[in-house]
Amino acid sequence: MPDNSIGVPPGTLIMLVLRILQSGPLHGYAIAQRIHTLSSETLQIEEGSLYPALQKILLNDWAIGEWGISESNRKVRFYKLTPAGRKHLATEVSEYDRVTLAIESILRPAKA
Amino acid sequence: MSNLWRRIQVFLNRKKIQRELEEEMAAHRAEMADPRTFGSTLKLREDSNDAWGFGWFDRLWQDVDYAVRLLRRSPAFTLTAFGFVNTALFRPLPGIEDPHALMRLTRQAPGVSSTNTSYPSYDFYRRNNKVFSQMFATTEAELTYNATLGVRPAYGTLTPSAPGDISISTAFLNSRFAGDKSILNKPILLNNKAARIIDVVEDSFVGLNPDPTKFWAIIDDHPHFFKGSILLTSIDNDPVFLYGRLAPGISPDAAEQAMRPIVDERRKVAPKEIWKDEFLLVAPAAYAVAKHEKVLLPFLLAGGLLLLVLATACANLGNLLLARSVTREREFAIRNAIGATRTRVIRQLMTESLILALLGAAVGLALSSAASSFLIKQLDGRPASTPPPIGASSSSPSSPLSSLLSSSASHPPCKSPAIIRGAPAASASSSSPSRPPPVASSSSLPASSREASTAAFQKSPASLTNTPSRLTQACKA
Question: How close B78 gets to chain A, by Cα (Å)?
Answer without folding.
Answer: 41
